[in-house]
Amino acid sequence: MVFFLFSQVLHPLLMVIGFILISGEAILVHRWLPGSRGFKKSVHLCLQGLALACGIFGIWTKFHGNDGIVANFFSLHSWMGLICISLFGAQWLMGFMSFWHRGEARSVRMRVLPWHVFLGLYTYGLAVATAETGLLEKITFLQTNKDVQKHSSESMVVNGLGLSLALLSGIVILAAVSPRFQAELMYPESKKMTTL
């Protein structure tokens, strides 16, 4: 019983902290972190690895509840979560192989970069959408079982959290796709040329 309650708290906490907060910070590393490109890339990779570890552990806690693995895959939230963790893991491996490993030619890395950025932002948006469906699923179950009233403070907290996550994701994605950021990411030497 204690582990069931523990998993009910840990799953959403780890998923939001890992996939939304830490992953959002990792996306913004190239924007706000001072230092060389190599340093920014290593911090980005480490933060995304930490986010992935939080996500895997968060899913593990959900699977070790009373219901087991199969019983947890009944909703849109669970299927979106499975797709999200799979894409996130593949994206992390692709980033590690293409950008951290220096064996590939620069031209190959530059061709992969737009896809890496697109899939990263898509996965981040999917993580936020998955969190939103998880919040909706949880509050619907509580309201259906009459554990929580429709116009209660708990409902307001869930709605506020959902709106905050949507706002945060908009800010992160806007910062990541702003034209200034794209020019620095795609053509780092252009910044040096404009300052001359």
Automatic annotation (TrEMBL):
Organism name: Salix udensis
Query: Main subcellular localization, coarse class?
Result: membrane
Q: What is its EC number?
A: 7.2.1.3
| Superkingdom classification of source | Eukaryota
Give one GO molecular function term. transmembrane ascorbate ferrireductase activity
Bilayer topology: Multi-pass membrane protein
Name used for this protein in its record: ascorbate ferrireductase (transmembrane)
* Keywords (A to Z) from UniProt: Electron transport, Heme, Iron, Membrane, Metal-binding, Transmembrane, Transmembrane helix, Transport
Positions of transmembrane segments = 12-30, 42-60, 80-100, 112-136, 156-177
Q: Which reaction does it catalyse?
A: Fe(3+)(out) + L-ascorbate(in) = monodehydro-L-ascorbate radical(in) + Fe(2+)(out) + H(+)
**EC top class named in words:** translocase
The protein's matches in Pfam families, at most eight in alphabetical order, are given as:
Cytochrom_B561
Chain ranges of the Cytochrome b561 domain: 1-177
The protein's required cofactors: heme b
Q: Where in the cell is it found?
A: Membrane
GTP-binding among the record's keywords? no
Q: One GO CC term of this entry?
A: membrane
